[in-house]
Amino acid sequence: MFRLQSSKVLAVEMTGDAVKAKNGSMVAYDGEMAFKKLSGGGDGIRGMVTRRLTGEQMTVMEVKGRGVCWFADRASDINLVGLRGDTLYVESSNLLATDGGLRTGTGFTGLRGASQGNGLFTTTVEGQGQAAIMSEGPAVVLRVSPQYPLTVDPGAYVAHQGNLRQSLQSGVTFRTLLGEGGGEAFQMRFEGDGLVYVQPSERNTIAGDV
């Protein structure tokens, strides 16, 4: 069972089950725990092929035991996401932990990944259970509906879930409107029905100011 010990610390109560977490994110535990390093970037052959194509590498550990284990990473804010058979798309650097029964993989994201310097793929989490994602500052969860599409700065994007169509647009951006932009810039557009998680801080990108 996942719960927030604070906004920056995840507590996982374990009764012999397993959890997958970002390698090195365990900060404390009580009880009996076993730790095993896993290959990252997604389960199975597709994850291996993706890492070879993009050079991406997620380092993940499996924690199994009885007791409570606490996780944190660089004082990032932590957000809990419940999955009921749907899929969560999340940047690999923003994924902290998942229930052991959830499947992780890779999803093609088109040119958006290239604009962020993260390759052409993003991490997918699917199944029944909980996942913990991180953000720089408290994440904002924005609803997308057929009547109200959403445009997001790629540097602020963290994750999304639901029946959403994603596209990349070039042109005027938020910084450009303020006279601070320069070079080629992009925006992410979401249409459909679902949720988008954004952070109040922008990561660096390589496709111009966004």
Describe this structure in words.
By secondary structure, the chain is mainly β. It is built from three helices and twelve strands; from the N terminus they run E-E-E-H-E-E-E-E-H-E-E-E-E-H-E. Strands 1, 2, 3, 4, 5, 6, 7, 8, 9, 10, 11 and 12 form a twelve-stranded antiparallel sheet that branches. The model is unreliable at 44-56, 111-120 and 205-210 (pLDDT under 50). Pfam families: AIM24. It comes from Streptomyces chlorus. InterPro entries: AIM24, AIM24_sf, Trp_RNA-bd_attenuator-like_dom.
Question: What is the structure about, briefly put?
Answer:
By secondary structure, the chain is mainly beta. It contains 3 helices and 12 strands. InterPro entries: AIM24, AIM24_sf, Trp_RNA-bd_attenuator-like_dom.
Blueprint of the fold:
Layout: E1 2-6, E2 9-22, E3 26-39, H1 44-54, E4 59-71, E5 77-90, E6 95-99, E7 103-108, H2 111-116, E8 121-135, E9 140-144, E10 150-152, E11 157-170, H3 174-177, E12 186-198
Antiparallel strand pairs: 1-2, 2-4, 2-6, 3-4, 5-8, 5-11, 6-8, 7-8, 9-12, 10-12, 11-12
Number of helices: 3
Unreliable stretches covering 5 or more consecutive residues: 44-56, 111-120, 205-210
Strand percentage lies at over 45%
**N-to-C SSE string, H for helix and E for strand:** EEEHEEEEHEEEEHE
Q: Mean pLDDT, nearest integer? A: 80
- Cα-atom radius of gyration: 17 Å
- What is the end-to-end distance? 38 Å
State the shape.
elongated
Please bin the fraction of helical residues: 10-25%
